[in-house]
Design brief:
This is Cupin domain-containing protein. With about 140 residues, the protein is mainly beta. It contains one helix and ten strands. The protein has a domain of about 100 residues: Jelly Rolls (Sandwich), CATH 2.60.120. The strands form three sheets. Strands 1-2-9-4-7 form a five-stranded antiparallel sheet. About 20% of the residues are buried.
């Protein structure tokens, strides 16, 4: 049976939540979609977009999460998942299995993705990488 006592209905319109720089990475902006509050921290849904050009990327890390989904809305990003380079483009969806070691090392200036993670207060642990990472490309001059 569905538990309706620990979660609430939520409806967030564009503009009701603002882009903010206070998130996991200072080179991204984040926009909360109200799901963490509605689920009492069981799940977070947020939009993530590029804020500045990639210099060093995210570094090798893994998340302490039970579920992690990335759906690319605009642009593209290049990840290393273990020793596998993966290009994620607009319309692509990635399910990051729990504990997968990865590195986001390059992305387009218009990159924007939807991220859904459970639990909402998931942890991030820096780790040693299994292989070298390609250098990011240069962004076009503004």
């Amino acid at each position: 049976m569905l538990d309706t006592t620990t979660t609430r209905f939520s409806h967030v319109k564009p503009g009701q939540t603002l882009w903010r720089g206070e998130g996991l990475r200072d080179f991204f902006l984040y926009r909360d979609l109200g799901v963490a509050d509605a689920t009492n921290g069981q799940v977070i849904a947020q939009l993530v977009k590029a804020n500045s050009a990639p210099e060093k990327g995210t570094g090798w890390h893994r998340h302490e999460a039970q579920f992690h989904l990335v759906y690319m809305l605009k642009g593209w990003a290049r990840f290393m998942y273990g020793d596998q380079e993966t290009l994620v483009e607009a319309g692509d969806m990635v399910h990051q299995r729990p504990g997968i070691v990865h590195f986001l090392f390059d992305y387009s200036p218009d990159m924007e993705y939807l991220e859904i993670v459970g639990p909402a207060d998931f942890g991030t642990v820096d780790v040693e990488g299994p292989c070298p990472v390609p250098a990011p490309g240069a962004w076009p001059a503004a």
